[in-house]
Amino acid sequence: MDLNADLGEGFGVWKLGDDEALLDLVTSANVACGFHGGDPSIMRAVCAAAADRGVAIGAQVGYRDLAGFGRRRIDYRHDDLRDEIIYQIAALDGFARIAGDRVRYVKPHGALYNTAAVDELQAGAVVDAITDYDAGLPVLCQPGSTLARLAADAGLRVVGEGFADRSYLPDGRLTPRTHPDAVIHNSAAVADRVVQMAVEHTVTAVDGTEVPCRVDSICLHGDTAGAVDLARRVRASLLDADLSLASFA
Fold first, then answer.
1. Judging by beta carbons within 10 Å of its beta carbon (0-12, 13-18, 19+), is residue 39 exposed, middle or buried?
2. Cα 15 vs. chain centroid, distance in angstroms?
3. Residue 115: inside a domain
4. What is the pLDDT of residue 224?
5. Is residue 6 situated within a structural domain?
6. Which residue from 86, 95, 135, 215 could staple onto 44, CB 3.0 to 4.6 Å apart?
7. What's 115's domain CATH number?
8. Which residues of 121-132 are buried (b: 16+ CB within 10 A; e: fewer)?
9. 158 found inside a domain
């Protein structure tokens, strides 16, 4: 099982999350590419730290929305969104190569992630950006989503992702962050859910129903309060369940 986290999401003098500590715990790093968070210096530092630890570097691409942290939907023309995603992948890939590695996968962030899960135009833009830049890059996304389907149709490798600290709707989508129960703060509950997703391939939705959730990677949000302690607990729970941890990339 892969354990990933969103990293490098500070900007300038504003720090968000403990990237160094999380890099000691995860197997893949979703690195912000400067649009929803991150800047060139942060991107370079996180790539170097990830490469030093053998953690796979992924491009976490998002909307051009620093003020809203990429969590507000933006309507784009297909070509504009495609090219902005290529721009982000290429920028991070430059810093990854300086660190002696390369970008190994792509994951949308925030509102782009949620929109591409259901919207063919934006999902298509993500797929076209990846195929234009490097068709060998896997796409990390929700299983069963529009993005997963279009990526598979285009011949891309699709890696299903589950969220340790987010609640799910009965249809398998993530609960919107505007909902008070969108983020799960109880660390014991989070650890149990992760093992459920990894072993039973299901997740319990907000209404109590069991939803299919076949995943190869578990995401922790680096900006969540107590993210490092939660990552330690999740990692320990997976190892206690006799699961080995390794990046899919």
1. middle
2. 19
3. yes
4. 73
5. yes
6. 95
7. 3.20.20.370
8. ebbbbbbbbbbe
9. yes
* 179: number of Cβ within 10 Å: 12
Residue 173 within any structural domain of the chain: no
Q: What is the pLDDT of residues 75-133, one digit of tens each?
A: 999 999 999 999 999 999 999 999 999 999 999 999 999 999 999 999 999 999 999 99
And the tokens for 87? 């721009």
Task: For residue 59, give its domain range.
Answer: 2-167+215-222
pTM: 0.96
**Tokens, residue 160:** 């299903």
- 74 exposure class (CB count in 10 Å sphere: 0-12, 13-18, 19+): middle
Structure tokens at 55: 């953690």
Nearest-5° Cα angle at 224, 217 to 75 = 75
**Which of 86, 75, 91, 197 lies closest to 132, judged by CA?**
86
Length of the chain: 249
Structure token digits, residue 161: 């992702």
What pLDDT digit, counting tens, does each position of 171-206 carry?
988 998 888 889 998 899 999 999 999 999 999 999
